[in-house]
């Protein structure tokens, strides 16, 4: 027999405030968006980044920045809690991250990529993951700058996932493997 389950009320979830979020320990991970077109995807990435306390989101190239109604619609305020930075060129963001001691990984299908389930982050290191444009993916020039590429295995007829879905999967995997 199934046990009765009652949905929890928002007040029972014990979530931290936006102000508290700014001060708590973060996952040593930065999500970089390389020319992501959809403002809804950007908002969704903010929301997933908030859920797992990502350190920051870097918005590059044509990727829109807050405040934007479309970003807020999917971020639901996470664009206010998660730190973000804008770079005109993704290559400059990668150079900055490397200078700050981050390992930088593109999420892309390339020769020699590491499948996500085989990627084991070192808990002592800081990471950045780069997610690409909805059509073109991560720019080859950016891939060339990276320490490596992570690939999500797929078994259907399509060869890609939505960028916000990809972000959710990757951020969860980093949180699971590094903190939980």
Automatic annotation (TrEMBL):
Domain tRNA/rRNA methyltransferase SpoU type stretches: 29-171
What GO terms are given for molecular function? Answer: RNA binding; RNA methyltransferase activity
Gene Ontology BP annotations: methylation; RNA processing
Q: Name one GO cellular component term.
A: cytosol
Does the keyword Transferase belong to this entry?
yes
Task: Give the SUPFAM superfamilies listed for this entry.
Answer: alpha/beta knot (SSF75217)
Looking at the keywords, is Methyltransferase present? yes
Keywords tagged on the record: Methyltransferase, Transferase
PANTHER family xrefs = 23S RRNA (GUANOSINE-2'-O-)-METHYLTRANSFERASE RLMB
This protein's name: RNA methyltransferase, TrmH family
Native source species = Paraprevotella clara YIT 11840
């Amino acid at each position: 027999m199934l046990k009765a389950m009652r949905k929890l009320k928002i007040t029972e979830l014990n979530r931290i405030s936006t102000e508290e979020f700014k001060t708590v320990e973060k996952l040593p991970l930065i999500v970089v968006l390389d020319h992501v077109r959809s403002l809804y995807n950007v908002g969704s990435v903010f929301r997933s980044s908030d859920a797992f306390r990502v350190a920051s989101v870097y918005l590059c190239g044509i990727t829109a920045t807050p405040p934007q109604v479309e970003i807020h619609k999917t971020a639901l305020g996470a664009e206010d809690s998660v730190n973000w930075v804008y770079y005109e060129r993704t290559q400059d963001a990668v150079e900055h991250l490397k200078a700050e001691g981050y390992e930088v990984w593109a999420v892309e299908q390339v020769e020699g990529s590491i499948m996500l389930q085989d990627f084991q982050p070192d808990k002592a290191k800081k990471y950045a993951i780069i997610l690409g444009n909805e059509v073109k993916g991560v720019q080859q020039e950016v891939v060339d700058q990276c320490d490596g590429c992570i690939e999500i295995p797929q078994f259907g007829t399509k060869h890609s996932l939505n960028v916000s879905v990809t972000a959710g999967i990757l951020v969860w995997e980093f949180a699971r493997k590094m903190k939980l």
